[in-house]
Amino acid sequence: MKKVYDWETNRIEFDDKDGNIYNLQLRGNVNIVVGDSASGKTLLCNKIMNIARDKNIVARKYSADGMFVVNEDNVDKLKENNHTLILIDRAEQILDDDLVDYINRDISNRYLIFTRKSLGIEITPNHVAEMREHDREFRLEYRYNVGGWC
């Protein structure tokens, strides 16, 4: 069984039964994904939640070990994670100032945050991307790649 997320390469890679391929290279510890409706942000989170919930070990192709998808029902457990990639969909609806401050100080986890507005997350523009799909392959397209910006 292959892990969806590889901590060493900081990459999400998997395919689904619909023929979609997810090949997302993350940068650093915090990445923010913005974009239009229907660009695949929520779809990605739902796919990973489904992989995590699948208890059929025999048929499972992928594992979501080392990942935690935050939603309104489990946001209180965000701070319980360690050495985990934390995905937050619709972050503008879920995160409050206390959690934004926690994310800004957290050095033990990594974050992939989907939002439609600025939240006060302390990152450089190099870590802001849009989800793009081409020929059923989803990737992150970063807006900037400026040397010296961490």
Give a written overview of the molecule.
- The chain is of the alpha/beta class and 150 residues long.
- It contains three helices and eleven strands; from the N terminus they run E-E-E-E-E-H-E-E-E-H-H-E-E-E.
- Strands 2-3-4-11-10-5-9-8-7 form a nine-stranded mixed sheet.
Task: List key phrases describing it.
about 150 residues, alpha/beta, nine-stranded mixed beta sheet, two-stranded parallel ribbon, globular
Main sheet, how many strands, which sense, barrel? 9 strands, mixed
Helix content: 10-25%
Strand content: 25-35%
Radius of gyration: 15 Å
- SSE pattern: EEEEEHEEEHHEEE
Brief sketch in words of this structure:
With 150 residues, the chain is α/β, with parallel strands linked by helices. It has helices at 41-53, 91-94, 97-105; strands at residues 2-3, 5-6, 11-15, 21-25, 30-34, 62-63, 67-70, 85-88, 110-114, 128-134, 137-142. The protein is 17% helix and 31% strand.
